[in-house]
Amino acid sequence: MKERFVEILACPDCAGGLSLAAQHGGGGEEVLDGELRCGTCGRSFPIVRGIPRFVPQELGGEAAHTARAFGESWTRFGGLSDRYKNQLLEWIAPVRAQDLQGKTLLDAGCGKGRHLAVAAELGVKFAAGADLSCAVEMAYRNTVRFPNVLVVQADLHRLPLRPVFDYGWSIGVIHHISGPAAVLGRVIRSLRPGGRFSAWVYGRENNGWIVHVVNPLRKRLTSRMRFGDLDALSRVLAGVLYGVCR
Hints:
Elements: E1 18-24, E2 33-38, E3 44-48, E4 51-52, H1 61-76, H2 83-92, H3 97-100, E5 104-108, H4 114-121, E6 126-131, H5 136-143, E7 149-153, E8 165-171, H6 180-188, E9 191-200, H7 208-220, H8 227-245
Parallel strand pairs: 5-6, 5-8, 6-7, 8-9
Antiparallel strand pairs: 1-2, 2-3, 3-4
């Protein structure tokens, strides 16, 4: 985390301003380990391996299961690809690449940071990405080379960010979270007055085979499988599907 980014962070409990109470390691502006402290309620939050952490170490319930599943996936498949730029622009259309230039951007549910990296390359003034899972480790590694990107580990229900963003997006995330309408409302409060937001979610229309076949299998079977077994099964199915599509 760059030291100057402290000014856009806020306590997720009381929205009070945070200060850098301690820091260790890093070079130049980079803070690798340290502590952030709220000047209003006194709560403190650690910075671990360059990432401000605003979630408890041990999560529980459905949120923990979802975060663990996505964290394992994004950590294992953490590389970046040239195709991500075109994918992102399709998902946020009619917003265009030139619309991002000079803007402050929020990525709600940043995963491994692939869209943050694209945003930085497209010329945003500043981009912040938040994710609940351990995928933030990969997101940090994928974006640490950019001087204008911040990654935080946080719950989208309790974002630790001030309302400083011109534009935000959430790509393929909100429908996985309990209470999606409440999440969307909370995320939008992190925008400036007049800010814009794009949310890409799974569509029910024209996806009957997913709704009636894939989704029941996901709920009853694949979501309960070990990651290694699911990975092996996915590779077999992907190979078959690739052959059919070709």
